[in-house]
Amino acid sequence: MNFNSPYNPKETEGRIYKLWEKSGFFNPDNLPDKRKGKFVTPIAPPNITGELHMGHALELTMQDILVRMKRMQGFKTLWIPGIDHAGIAAQNVVEKQLAKEGTNRHKLGEKKFLERMWEWKEKYGGLILEQFKKLGLSVDWSRTRFTMDLDYQKAVKFAFDHYLKKNWIYSGERVVNWCPRCETYISDLEVNYVPEKTKLYFIKYGPFTVATVRPETKLADMALAVNPNDERYKKYIDKEIDIDSVDLDIPLKEEPQIKKYTLEVLGDEAIDPNFGTGVIKVTPAHDKTDYEIAERHNLFPIAPRVINDNPYVMNPNAGVRYMGLKVSEARKKIVEDLQKLNLIKKIEDYEHNVSRCDRCNSVIEPLLSEQWFLKMNGEKGLASLALQALKKGKIRLHPSRWRKPYEDWLKNIRDWNINRQLWWGHKIPTIKEKKLEGVLDTWFSSALWPFAVLGWPNKNSKDYKEYYPTQFITSDRSILFLWIVRMIFSGIELTDRIPFKDIYIHPTVQTKEGKRMSKSLGTGINPLGLMEKYGADALRFGLAYQRTELQDMRFYEDNLMMGKKFANKLWNTVRYVLSRVKDNWDKYSKDGTFSIKEVTGSKSFGGPLRTTAEEVTKNLEKYRFGEAAHVLYDYLWHTIADEYIEKSKIKSDEETKKNLVYYVVNTLKLLHPFMPFITEEIYQQLPINSKKKCLMVEKWPTG
């Protein structure tokens, strides 16, 4: 490349990435020189449905900065890439495709549907990994893994059998989250609570009035409940009262009639006296709080359900009057009937949090269902293992403010519902002669990622013996509990070792207005387009530069323009130094290492270089990426360009020329983790006598 021309990222980036791949240095087994230790980190495997978004760009840029620095520091560095089969997310995408074709998975049948899933994986599964190359990620592609690989399936089966032998897997009934659109149960962590306006219905229950947003579930009432300290209702506690309701045996085409029945009044501390009238109906099969109340008051084993999961309609327990109606239709009809019978006192507008599926945004239906669960609690249970690892300092959370949410979640954790009513995923085996349809929760297999990708459960695997446990993992807060915590207790239980030491929870990227980035909401920003516009280095440096310790990070495109200008400043600085030194680079280098210790002359310039190297290193080792970027920006722009280069225009002796070379080369090294393409391109153009051939494996600058 001609330094007389402006830097052109489009012409450079693809060529430089091929150079790195050809070098083999992404693979730790090929790294030059004796390595002083290891640094291993697994990628957070993206979905096979995924495409690069700003969250990926931030997370992976931060991870690559760390990996590149560790590699240059002399560590045997392994960054493991891969993709996740993504269960519900992947199945949804293919089902939408089928809908456009006028069919669905049930018409296809399970065998043909799974064939379509594998076709999708082969066609689109690796696309996001190819996009990651555009970002400059230095992962070891030879070790790419997929969570449905045959070896990985064996690891999942081994883990399942391990828990089964310990009697930690059991079947039981619990109110779980049913997504009618996805046709499966999902975890509490995959539910979004969205404020929405609805109606609050005040329904007569004998001497009481009950306020509810779910009149259709009154058909499954088992009791009424009040707070035991509520003076209005104390006299009713533990007594049965007569109730008027709709006769379910009357067909819908006929006028509604009243049918009488009785309900017991329970006293329970969970009841908020200030909500509605202070009296609630207890429907254990359709509400989690009601289920817990029923458990405390021994209302089981019978808890009638009036709503089916699949199809999502009223079931025979709703009687001939409402059976077969969609839930929304049933609500409308029941309200009309109650009004005709003069059993509704009033209807008010009401705003409350509605549970919606994180994948498809459908309203979640709480339903009592038989599921498979993995025990979490107990003296030596999985939750305890993860808690003790934090308390004993075996793992470290960065920033440290995430310690408390981590502890609180584990202290209040419930047993893990590990099955999903899907076709795509790891099949649940027959257990104790009981066969449940479906697959394991995606997060069950993802929880094995740090060790399964290295050959576990084969403990004689070369990679497992050499590279496990890993040292570092990163994610945003949305999967701290879904993934990070579960990897920790899975690793301790299944391998007897902590799977990683340091956990970095990076900020969530938002729009500059502070809104959630979402393609469907029209607030998403495509990093591929930004890289096309500014170059990958500008995107990387711009993201790092605006990274702070805040929980959320508002994205400003202005920082990418700054990154582009900064890249040009670096380019022009090197062009100037070349013009001053010309063909004498070898003269100033003994072995190509350009150690800071070799810098001579004024301490006013040798000192800032040492200080800069120390500050950048310290900040990166503490995951303060923004601070490190600011230090480098100020050093290049102000110390080198504004001060030293300006002075070198006046003084051009051999010592000055030598120091110019050393400052520039070491600045390239320090900037390389942030801006790998332009720094490598410059390095390749310099007449440096180095046997290593790539800047990415040169020695990291130290004082």
Explain what this protein looks like in three dimensions:
By secondary structure, the protein is of the alpha/beta class. Among the domains are: 186-365, Isoleucyl-tRNA Synthetase, domain 2, CATH 3.90.740; 557-697, Orthogonal Bundle (Isoleucyl-tRNA Synthetase, Domain 1). The protein is 40% helix and 18% strand. It has 23 helices and 22 strands. A four-stranded antiparallel beta sheet has the order 6-5-14-16. Strands 10-11-9-12 form a four-stranded mixed beta sheet, sandwiched between helices. β1 (37-42), α2 (54-72) and β2 (75-80) form a beta-alpha-beta unit. α21 (625-648) runs antiparallel to α22 (654-671). The longest helix is centred in the C-terminal third of the chain and has 24 residues, at 558-581. The protein is elongated, with a radius of gyration of 31 Å. The model has no long low-confidence stretch (mean pLDDT 90).
